[in-house]
Specification:
Layout (H helix, E strand, L loop, with lengths): L9 H14 L2 H8 L6 H13 L18 H14 L6 H14 L2 H13 L4 E4 L15 E5 L2 E8 L10 E7 L10 E7 L5 E7 L5 E14 L3 E2 L5 H14 L4 H15 L13 H25 L8 H24 L17 H5 L4 H7 L10 H11 L3
Parallel strand pairs: 1-4
Antiparallel strand pairs: 2-3, 3-7, 4-5, 5-8, 6-7
The protein binds flavin-adenine dinucleotide.
The site of flavin-adenine dinucleotide has 19 residues, from strand 1 and helix 13.
């Protein structure tokens, strides 16, 4: 089932589809569609292809080298990329740090950092969370002490996604311990290759290396690598989180995974019956389709409002993350025993790749996707934000 809620953008959509058909490397697309592991090279190769076409930074205004698209055009672009199996663009530089630099950074900071983000040469990660400071982010303890023209920074960040690939990290650090927690935080940019920075892997439930601890041991950071005024970090942090959450809806990915679910559910299992033959399963699938449409419409409605992302991005975060988690649960259900990890039959040459080979990854993926309701601020916290906005 495919609804086009933006018929006026049909020519634009067709342009994106033609580009994807011609330019998305087949090996990368196949890996994404099968839910396999992506390598750093896959992501940067695709970023460079997009950059060559002028689409490397879809959300940026033209003055900073973006295509200057409207928000609706960006949504169409994301939607088509996800459905075609393009790798996700890494959001840390493109969609989190870049808007911060455009709004709060100096001209030198923008000139230095924006080009490398757009062309895929420089990989960024996000150093917000610390042990004990996740939801309660304002309690963070990483300390930055002035020493001449630099800060000396010591502390530990955690859950840092893909830090093992990163060249730079944007961090929240405490520059005033005497002030109220929110008033003593600054936003700094740290070179991951600077002396005193070390990265330790955290292995997730699916056995993958996606997140890390980042240790900062007396790292010297020049004062001109602070973004905004000293102790203005909390304002910047909140501005950035609004952008993080509004891009987290994942409506295009939901459509892609629903198509995959439908295909898998229509295939007969070992007992000769397809999951779709079960009316209860068919009803669950129908409900997922309805919820995906509702998410898409809600997103389109919200982005057409004036002003920066506000508490409504919390709504998209909750709806989008829960939908993808429910789809992944149904995928495991539809694949049945084939979704069990370490399915030895997957090694057999005549093993059906749709019902078997790819299905062997589904349980791991199911485990991995529990993260969606935790990162970017947990869904409980998003409910709190919405409740406050509604005056409850
Ligand atoms: C896969 C993954 C990747 C991540 N990547 C990054 C990254 O790149 N950079 C980064 O900085 N961080 C990252 N994070 C960290 C993420 O933002 C935090 O995990 C998140 O904010 C929750 O913090 P916490 O883990 O300390 O849990 P806690 O804050 O300790 O929460 C524990 C539980 O208590 C609940 N809770 C806490 N406070 C309240 C409250 N006031 N009301 C109701 N319930 C509450 C939470 O909802 C949760 O269920 C990542 C996390 C994950 C899982």
């Amino acid at each position: 089932m495919n609804h086009d809620f933006l018929p006026e953008l049909a020519p634009f959509r067709a342009e994106i589809q033609d580009f994807l058909a011609a330019e998305l490397p087949a090996d990368i697309g196949a890996r994404v569609l099968a839910g396999k592991r992506l390598r750093k090279e896959d992501i940067t190769r695709w970023q460079r292809i997009l950059h060559r076409r002028g689409w490397g930074a879809p959300s940026w205004p033209a003055e900073w080298g973006g295509p200057g698209w409207s928000t609706l055009q960006q949504i169409v672009f994301d939607d088509e990329c996800a459905q075609a199996g393009a790798p996700p663009q890494i959001a840390f530089g493109l969609r989190m740090l870049a808007p911060v630099l455009m709004r709060f950074g100096t001209k030198e900071q923008r000139n230095r950092h924006l080009p490398g983000i757009a062309n895929g040469d420089v990989w960024w990660c996000q150093g917000y969370s610390e042990p004990g400071s996740g939801s309660d982010l304002a309690s963070l303890k990483t300390r930055a002490v002035r020493d001449g023209s630099a800060y000396v920074i010591t502390g530990q960040k955690t859950w840092t996604t893909l830090a093992q690939h990163a060249d730079w990290i944007f961090c929240l650090v405490r520059t005033d311990s005497a002030a109220k927690p929110q008033e003593g935080i600054s936003f700094v940019l740290i070179d991951m290759h600077a002396p005193g920075v070390s990265v330790r892997p955290i292995i997730t439930v699916d056995g993958e290396h996606e997140i890390n601890e980042v240790w900062l041991d007396a790292v010297r950071v020049p004062l001109d690598q602070r973004v905004g005024a000293e102790n203005q970090g909390w304002t910047i942090a909140k501005f950035l989180l609004g952008h993080e959450r509004s891009n987290i809806a994942g409506a295009g990915v939901a459509k892609r995974e629903l198509a995959r679910l439908r295909e898998l559910a229509a295939k007969p299992g070992t007992d000769g019956r397809a999951a779709l033959d079960d009316p209860l399963f068919a009803a669950r699938l129908a409900q997922l389709h309805i919820d995906a449409l509702a998410l898409e419409i809600t997103q389109l409605r919200l982005v057409q409002r004036e002003g920066p992302p506000g508490s409504e991005s919390s709504m998209l975060k909750i709806l989008g993350s829960e939908l993808l988690q429910r789809i992944s649960e149904c995928l495991v259900h539809a694949a049945g025993a084939a979704a069990l990890p370490f399915e030895h039959a997957a090694f057999e040459p005549d093993f059906d790749p749709v019902a078997g080979d790819d299905a062997a990854l589904l349980a791991a993926k199911y485990g991995n996707l529990r993260k969606l309701s935790i990162y970017g601020g947990t869904n409980e916290i998003q409910h709190n934000i919405l409740a406050r906005a509604l005056g409850l």
